[in-house]
Design goal:
By secondary structure, the protein is mainly α. It has helices spanning about 10-20, 25-35, 40-55, 60-70. The radius of gyration is 11 Å and the shape is flat.
């Protein structure tokens, strides 16, 4: 895993790369994996919510965004 020692910014960049190419489900998974590693980075969870919404799961997306805003 090239991001094993990475910072939240690396996970955000990887997710944006995938999201920009229409790979929303993959982007959501990357953001969520980054958030698992860096739970204080609400931006990762927030972007995961946006990406999962674009992938078609609005309820889960809304849940992740809500949790991110409460962080």
């Amino acid at each position: 895993d090239p991001f094993n020692e990475g910072a939240p910014a690396q996970w955000l960049a990887w997710g944006r790369f995938l999201d920009a190419r229409g790979r929303h489900k993959d982007a959501a998974a990357v953001y969520l994996r980054g958030w698992d590693r860096f739970p204080l980075s609400a931006a990762l969870l927030y972007r995961s919510g946006l990406a999962v919404t674009r992938a078609g799961d609005a309820a889960e997306g809304r849940r992740r965004v809500d949790v991110a805003f409460r962080s």
